[in-house]
UniProtKB/TrEMBL annotation:
It comes from Chryseobacterium flavum. The keyword Signal applies. Residues 52-119, 133-167 form the M23ase beta-sheet core domain. Keywords: Signal. This is M23 family peptidase. GO terms for molecular function: metalloendopeptidase activity. Residues 1-21 form the signal peptide. Pfam families: Peptidase_M23.
Length: 562
C-alpha cells in the first residue's frame, strides 16, 4: 500500500510538472508558419548527429516555395545565409520576449531579398549574418516572409521552425506553445538495455533485453545482471497521428516505486546541444544506427535542465532479491508508453578495469606514441575511455607521416582535442606551409591546416578516427556542366567544386571583371542569372578563383554566351 501511494503521488507530481511547463509559455500567441496543417517530420529533442534537433521540422508535402508567414507580430531581427546549417534563415523578434526562426528557405520576401542582395554585392560576399533594428522590417502575424525550400544542411524540402528566448537565445520546445497537431499515439518502446556502471558505458557496453507488448504495457523477462551497480537505456520513438518517428520528450525511471531518474527536453542552447552525445549510447548510434537514450547521468554530461537534479539513475543492488522497474515515457500531449519489468542481481563477475591510458571526464590527459601526442581537456569525454593510441606506416603517395589511430570512431568527444604528429622527413618552410592533417572517421573525412610546434604539426578535431599528415600541392578546381564558349539558356549557372584533399575554403567569381553572386549548396556554386547577365547579352568571361585547405590557389577562366 505504501508503494502504491508513493506511485500515485509520483504520477500526480510528474503530470503537474508537464502541465506547469506548458503553462509557463503563451498559448495561441504563435500561429502555424505555413498555410497548410502542421505535420511533423521531426520534433524538438530528436536525436541527430552530434546534437539534439532544436526545433520542429514541418512537412511541406515534398514541395518547395510554399509561403512561409510570420508566426506573430514582430520585426525581422536577423538574416543568416550559409552553406550548411540553416541555409537561408530569417529570425523574427516578438514583443513578448521570444524570437522565431525559419530555416532552409529559398527566398525572402521581396523587400528583404533585395536588401540582402544589395548587401552581398556591396561586400562581395555571399554568406551573410545581418542584424536589423526594429524599424527596418516590421512584420504582422500571417504576413509573407519567405518561400520554403531545401537549402543548407537539409536532406529534403521542409521548413525548420524554432522558438527561442530572445535574451538567452535558448531554444524552447515549440510544442509547449499550444500548436494544434493531433496526437493520440503513445510512445513506442522497442528495446531495453542495461550497463555495468562499475566501469565505463563504452566497455563492455550495452546488454540487450528483449521487449514485448502485453496489452497497453511493454514488458520483459526478469533482467538478471552480474553487476551490483547498473543503469538502463531505452530504445523508443514518439509518434504523432501523422508523421515520422519522433524523439522522446520525457522519460522517468522508477525502482520499487521510487523515482531514480527523470529527463525532459524543454529547452536547449546551441552551446550545449553537443551534450546529446552524453545522453545516448553513442556507440550504438554510430555503429548500428540505433538511438538508445540513457536513463542515467554520465560523468561528463553537463546539459543543464535536461535531467532532474539529485537523480543519477544509477541502481545499486544490495541484495539478490527481485526489484520492480518501471519506465514511463510521455509526449507533450500526455500520451504514455510504459514498460514494467524486474531486475535481479546474480553472481557478480569481474569487468574491464582501467589502464594507464584511461581518459576520464573532468580530468586532462596526454597520451603519446613515438611520433604523436594527443591531449584531452577536462571536458573532452562523457565517460571513461581506455584509450588505444597507436601508429602504422602509411603507403599513400602524398602522406608524410605514419597513420595515427585514435581509439575508434564509436566513442564521442565533446571539446576539441589537440593532436601533434611528427612528419617522417624534414620539410622545407614552403612544404610546411602546404601540410594538412587529414582525419578519416569512417563516414567522412575532415582536413585542417596545421600549425607547427617546432618539428611537430598540430591540429584540433572533435571526432576520433585515423589521422595522417598530407603534403598537398594540388590545385582546387571548379567543373562546369557546359562546354567552354557554349551558349547557356538555363536560369542558372552551376559549377561543381573539387579538391584532392580538404575543401574549397575560398571562392570568388568575377563576371566581365566584376564580382558576381554565387550561392553555395554543398559542393556546388550556383549563380542565378540576374540583371548583371540578362538573356541576349552575348559573350561573357567568368574568372573563378578558388583556395583549398592547404592554401593552394587556382584561377580558371570560363567563357559562355547568354
Amino acid at each position: 500500500m505504501k508503494n502504491f501511494c508513493r506511485l500515485v503521488l509520483f504520477v500526480f507530481l510528474v503530470s503537474s510538472g508537464i502541465a506547469q511547463a506548458q503553462n509557463d509559455y503563451p498559448k495561441n500567441y504563435f500561429r502555424n508558419p505555413l498555410n497548410i496543417p502542421m505535420q511533423l517530420a521531426a520534433n524538438f529533442g530528436a536525436v541527430r548527429a552530434n546534437h539534439f534537433h532544436m526545433g520542429l521540422d514541418l512537412r511541406t508535402n515534398s514541395q518547395e516555395n510554399l509561403p512561409v508567414v510570420a508566426s506573430a507580430d514582430g520585426y525581422v531581427s536577423r538574416v543568416k545565409i550559409e552553406r550548411y546549417g540553416f541555409g537561408n534563415a530569417v529570425y523574427i523578434s516578438h514583443p513578448n520576449g521570444y524570437t522565431t526562426v525559419y530555416a532552409h528557405l529559398n527566398k525572402y520576401f521581396d523587400e528583404l531579398d533585395e536588401y540582402v542582395k544589395e548587401r552581398q554585392y556591396k561586400e562581395e560576399k555571399w554568406e551573410q549574418d545581418i542584424a536589423f533594428s526594429p524599424g527596418q522590417f516590421p512584420v504582422k502575424k500571417g504576413q509573407l516572409i519567405a518561400l520554403s525550400g531545401n537549402t543548407g544542411g537539409s536532406a529534403g524540402p521542409h521548413l525548420h521552425f524554432e522558438i527561442r528566448d530572445t535574451k538567452t537565445e535558448e531554444c524552447i520546445n515549440p510544442l509547449l506553445f499550444g500548436f494544434v497537431i493531433p496526437d493520440s499515439v503513445s510512445p513506442v518502446i522497442s528495446g531495453l538495455y542495461w550497463y555495468d556502471r562499475r566501469f565505463s558505458t563504452y566497455e563492455p557496453g550495452a546488454n540487450s533485453i528483449s521487449v514485448k507488448k502485453a496489452g497497453s504495457v511493454y514488458t520483459t523477462n526478469v533482467v538478471r545482471v552480474n553487476s551490483p551497480v547498473i543503469s538502463f537505456g531505452i530504445k523508443a520513438v514518439d509518434k504523432a497521428n501523422k508523421g515520422f518517428n519522433l524523439g522522446i520528450y520525457q522519460a522517468e525511471l522508477l525502482m520499487d516505486g521510487q523515482l531514480i531518474y527523470r529527463f525532459s527536453i524543454d529547452k536547449i542552447s546551441y552551446d550545449d546541444t553537443r551534450y546529446q552525445n552524453g545522453c545516448i549510447d553513442y556507440t550504438k548510434f554510430i555503429r548500428d544506427k540505433m538511438s538508445i537514450q540513457h536513463l542515467s547521468a554520465l560523468p561528463g554530461m553537463q546539459l543543464q535542465g535536461y535531467s532532474q537534479p539529485g537523480l543519477s539513475g544509477i541502481i545499486n543492488l544490495q541484495d539478490e532479491q527481485l526489484h520492480n522497474i518501471e519506465i514511463v515515457l510521455k509526449d507533450v500531449n500526455g500520451n504514455i508508453g510504459r514498460l514494467t519489468t524486474k531486475v535481479q542481481l546474480n553472481k557478480t563477475e569481474a569487468g574491464i578495469s582501467s589502464t594507464g591510458k584511461t581518459v576520464k571526464a573532468g580530468e586532462t590527459k596526454t597520451i603519446t606514441t613515438e611520433n604523436s601526442e594527443i591531449t584531452f581537456d577536462k571536458n573532452s569525454v562523457y565517460d571513461a575511455v581506455n584509450f588505444n593510441l597507436y601508429e602504422k606506416p602509411e603507403a599513400a603517395e602524398n602522406a608524410i607521416s605514419n597513420t595515427i589511430f585514435l581509439h575508434n570512431t564509436y566513442v564521442p568527444v565533446h571539446d576539441n582535442y589537440t593532436l601533434k604528429i611528427r612528419p617522417d622527413r624534414k620539410l622545407t618552410k614552403e612544404e610546411k606551409n602546404k601540410v594538412v592533417m587529414l582525419l578519416d572517421y569512417g563516414s567522412d573525412k575532415e582536413a585542417v591546416k596545421v600549425t607547427w610546434d617546432d618539428d611537430r604539426a598540430e591540429g584540433k578535431f572533435k571526432r576520433l578516427g585515423n589521422v595522417r599528415l598530407i603534403l598537398d600541392t594540388s590545385l582546387p578546381l571548379v567543373i562546369t556542366e557546359w562546354k567552354n564558349e557554349s551558349e547557356i539558356n538555363t536560369a542558372s549557372l552551376r559549377l561543381k567544386g573539387y579538391t584532392e584533399v580538404g575543401d574549397i575554403v575560398s571562392f570568388r567569381a568575377e563576371l566581365d571583371g566584376k564580382w558576381v553572386r554565387f550561392a553555395r549548396s554543398k559542393d556546388y556554386f550556383i549563380y542565378v542569372f540576374d540583371e548583371r547577365c540578362p538573356k541576349g547579352s552575348g559573350k561573357h568571361t567568368l574568372n573563378v578563383t578558388t583556395v583549398n585547405t592547404a592554401g593552394n590557389i587556382n584561377t580558371q577562366t570560363l567563357i559562355f554566351y547568354r
